[in-house]
């Protein structure tokens, strides 16, 4: 799997010249724990997360050090910490540089990056622009989607087609030689005719229950055997719900 397979779109951002109050209001109203910071043309500059707002003068949680440790830390470090705990400008609070991944980054590398940098949010980039966002919640959703009866790589289109044909062969209504099965990118396309309109839905349900099928494109038509009239149905694409 790649970053683009699970990322959230569109990306919620905040301007670098926004105030702390605007940032907090945005994060609370959208229920997010981090937001990319962009300039006036949308170029990403950094990331603002809940972790950047833990040490604040308003809540009395700014960092304090014993005098001898403060001496060793140096005035520059202390000045930087003061800015971070007292400034009310997003540009002073964001974390830089921005840690991001391209759209085609393998999911394993995304997870490794999150572990290495101890971050919860990874922006996904496309030609220097924000294309999406991956959070731990996205990873949990992917786990929930694929954990039910899933291990290892998914079946190929050829595998799925064979499974569909075997499933239909075991039914009294699905193996009459009138149905053509084509599989592309996990979507099963059913074409042909049935002699009873109810068989059309039975075909769809049979295909839906095969693990790895993402959707069914049903183009099966009904043929009235008495008159020989073929009655078409509207093309129907149905997404397969998760198990």
Report the CATH topology name of the largest domain.
CBS-domain
What Rg do the Cα atoms give?
27 Å
Can you tell me the overall shape? Answer: elongated
Largest sheet: 5 strands, mixed
Low-confidence stretches: none
Task: State mean pLDDT (0 to 100 scale).
Answer: 85
The chain-level structural class is: alpha/beta
CATH architectural label of the largest domain: Roll
CATH class of the largest domain: Alpha Beta
H/E element string? HEHEEHHHEHEEHHEEHEEE
As for the number of domains, it is 2
Strand content: 15-25%
Query: Separation of termini?
Result: 20 Å
Tell me the number of helical segments per DSSP (H or I, 4 or more residues long).
9
Name of the CATH superfamily of the largest domain: CBS-domain
| Number of separate strands | 11
Helix content: 25-40%
Describe the 3D structure.
It is a single chain. The chain is of the alpha/beta class. The protein folds into two domains: 3-147, CBS-domain (Roll); 157-239, 2-Layer Sandwich (Histidine-containing Protein, Chain: A), CATH 3.30.1340.30. It has helices at 3-6, 20-30, 67-73, 75-86, 90-93, 107-117, 136-147, 157-169, 198-208, and strands at residues 14-15, 34-38, 44-49, 101-102, 121-126, 129-135, 179-184, 187-194, 215-224, 229-231, 236-239. Strands 7, 8, 9, 10 and 11 form a five-stranded mixed sheet that branches. The longest helix has 13 residues, at 157-169. The two termini are 20 Å apart.
